[in-house]
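pasting for the record
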Amino acid sequence: MKKIFVAAAICALTAVTALSFAACGEGGSNPPGSETYTFEAEYAVLPTDGAGWSGGMGGVSPDLDGDFNASNGYFVVGMYKKGSTLTFNVEADKAVDDARLVARFSNEDPASLLNIDGKKAYTLTPENYQIKVNGTALDFNDITFNNIHKTNRFMDYTIATGVSLKQGENTIELVCNNDQSMGGTTLGTAPIVDCIKITTTASLTWEPTKVSFPSELQGDKELNV
């Protein structure tokens, strides 16, 4: 699988009317009139620091063969260092307390190097991986990844419901908050990120960060802007 590592990217925002939602066995009804907005990780503000499996700090990778089932054909890797942060700046037209936040995560082990305590598995907790909304870390159920292979398909994970958003700009941050190496030159444990999804009665917008991808690394994919 080919990869390209870049310092920034662009993204499309999609919205669909939300009647109900379920992720990884969790579900629940959303408020009448709510919509689900998808914010692609490749268009967010990328980490300024990180670590890869074999040098480098990572960045955006194309899902050329579709092995990861990335929602827009790209995802963010290399957040394998404490403090590495992926940032989504989202505008809301009003203040609400009804937002449901979902993160779409997966994992990679490109050279079969992952070895934490002799297991190809790890668990995200609110302590070792922070998900912040306007500076406040959310309390979420532990997320365990088992039987990690070279490539693994993305899945939706409900992080929290009843999340408060303020009118105007809201900052959502995904932060590696540990220094537990997974192997190779990694300096921390973190998932790869496809996107986040927010379901709310507020109207959400954002201004994606832009980047150009070399055509030879896009294959037959096109960036949906």
